[in-house]
Amino acid sequence: MSGLSARFRVAFCCLLPALMLFFICPASAAQDPKARKREPSTPEQRAKFVEFARQLEADPLGKDAQGMRGASIQWLSDAPDIKVEVCDLLPDLLHSKKNYSSELFGQMVISSGAFVATFPDSADDHLLVNTAGIVGTLNAYQAILKSHPDSRWPLLDELIKKSNVGDLAAYVQVVTAKCKQAVPPDDENNKNKVVAANDHLHRGNKLFDQAQYQLALIEYTRAAALIPDQHNAYHELSQAFYSLKNYDRAIEFANRAIALEPKCWLCHQALGNIYDDSGKPEQALIEYSKAVDLAPNSGRPLYNYALALNHLNRNGEAISALEKAIQLDPQYSSSYRLLGMLRAEKGELYVAKAQFEKFVSIESRGDRFERVSGYLKPAVHLDGEKVKQGDPQIEAYGEYGLTRAAWMTSEFKKRNPSATVYERTPQEELAALKNEADKWQQTKKEKPEAKDDQLDRLLKIYQSEQLEAFVYNNLGDHFRSQLENWKLTNPNGLENFRNWAATNSVSVAPLHQPVRVEWLGSDR
Fold first, then answer.
1. SS3 (DSSP) at 519
2. Rg (CA), the chain
3. Average pLDDT in the chain
4. CA–CA separation, 441 vs 298, rounded Å?
5. Domain coordinates of the chain in residue numbers?
6. pTM above 0.85, yes or no
7. 82 phi/psi in degrees, rounded to 5
8. What is the pLDDT of residues 105-116, one digit of tens each?
9. Beta-sheet pairing, 522-523 with 515-519
């Protein structure tokens, strides 16, 4: 049948301005369905319908959800080329009026329709269509529970457990059979099983790319049944279970793929990923090593090998592997990102910066691009518990942080052109404190009532030309050589400063700056 059966139609028309562009249903037509012109849906309408389906799965109780849901079901019932046979897949919901049952049942219909709109050639594959409907319902159900945790359905809770381990299709198979809906034959009598299997793999890969893992598992399982002596389907099954974090099943199918094709380096790499993400880096390292041996001219298995080394805190070896990976595959962005992170951990900030810059030049969009771009921009953070918005001392403390950031990112490198490791110096601290004192002095002129014990002490030291001695007085053992060199030109500097401080009742203790500077992923 086309659209939906009449008893499931919702007379809900023209509720949202956004829907008007795609789901047009004049009032007169809504009153007389036969008068409505039933033209085939357009690609734009189908794409918008799928978009709304995903929005409703993510936010089924949002401000516009009710109107969107009603108009979507109305459009689905009117579309002559989108066929959805509504089945009592979730009987507990259909026969109840509690816990948002109507919203959840409506979502099942809409999500089923979204699958058909995306894969019209599979409209008669009720196992896929019904699985898509239940997956969408479970997504909406979990979204509802976030704001209404008491609105539980035992059946849906059980199906979530099945979904999490990749066993949802077994339930759908049973209820589909009860509905007497046809499921396509298993292709056992197909003359060209390889072609049929590849069709299933192709569709499974499309579903996998859409994160529809339950549906992908169905297609991969069908492919494996057709070509049980080939590794491809088992490898894809492994990847789907891996994405569901069902690591035991993922390992099982990865090993089956490798048994059939021991030279499949992608299979060894995939098995390494599973071991690594399940907290077994030693076993991951073994699989990555095999992948490296099988693909000696590819940098990608070397990257994964380096990642496992990093998880084992063998960062020196990881850096060497990454440098080799970059030589083999200079356009593989992930190697630069990880190498930048490891170099930054060692304090080799300027080498790390170059790696991050290379990464963003290759991978110029997406979440990872945004994150690494943020690493490259120094950020000054003030302690919100000690400095409040509007406090007069914000600018002075901010100036301290900004000066340190400038030294870190450029000034230190200018003074030390061959340096790879950034090192905080007395000169940096002196410059930062001077600018902080200048800014506080300016603030005090504009706001004479402004007070801050630390900044007032700093300003007094600065105005008495004791700032340099104050810095060297508070150097730790790490700067012992710089202190000794300073004493050579200022033999009485520290003694004079301490005498001055005692006379003027000024503490010589270091300042506790309520500010931190972040660059290249960490505080510096």
1. strand
2. 33
3. 90
4. 60
5. 1-184, 398-523
6. no
7. -115, 110
8. 999 999 999 999
9. antiparallel
